[in-house]
Amino acid sequence: LELGLGLFDWVGNGISMEMATLIVNVIVTIRHFIQRYRMKRTVLTADGRRQWNRSVKLGAQLIAIGMIYVIGWVPYSLIVLIQMFKGSEELADILSRVLAYFPYFQELILPFVAILYMPEIKGKLIALCVFPCRNLKRRHQNQVQVIHLQQTTSHFQSRIVSHR
Questions:
Q1: pTM above 0.85, yes or no
Q2: Which of 10, 52, 67, 138 is 20 to 30 A from 40 via CA?
Q3: Backbone φ/ψ region at 150: left (φ over 0), alpha (ψ -120 to 50), beta
Q4: Contacts of 85 (CB under 8 A, 6+ apart)
Q5: pLDDT the model gives residue 94
């Protein structure tokens, strides 16, 4: 009875959420691409290609975020399932020391994955990570330059009109 309740709990609270997330992400991504393909114009323009590239990036971002969730929870759920059938100290140790922190790690990584799909921020982040010293040395300082003006003088006689 206890094993049956454990399996019911594992299916209801554990693996069903991961599988639902994975399946829904794949279905939404496929549906998105099918709709975009149907709406695509027969003549490809630069704007159409740009929109298609944006759609591909959107689908990749959705899959990446969904996979982070699945990668965070599936190992934990599988070890819990194995632990139900074969209770060993080694699996309990792995579960408590390593896999218990995976879901927290996924929440920590999620904003960075979202940032990687933003082109403006992605370029700045890569420049900061790849060349950290170059960015520190490049402090903008005020520069003052002397402008030499050539004076041109003209020798015109001025007329002074006097009113009497």
A1: no
A2: 67
A3: beta
A4: 3
A5: 79
* C-beta of residue 69 within 8 angstroms of C-beta of residue 43: no
Cα–Cα distance for residue pair 129/135, rounded to 1 Å: 10
The string of pLDDT tens digits covering residues 78-136 is 887 888 788 788 888 877 888 778 878 888 888 888 888 877 787 787 777 777 666 55
To 5 degrees, how large is the angle CA 32–CA 36–CA 40?
175
What own/partner pairs with CB < 8 Å and gap ≥ 24 does 28-33 have?
A: 28/62, 29/59, 29/62, 29/63, 32/58, 32/59, 32/62, 33/59
Q: In angstroms, rounded to a whole number, what is the distance separating the alpha carbons of residues 55 and 33?
A: 7
Task: Measure the CA–CA gap between 22 and 27, rounded to whole angstroms.
Answer: 9
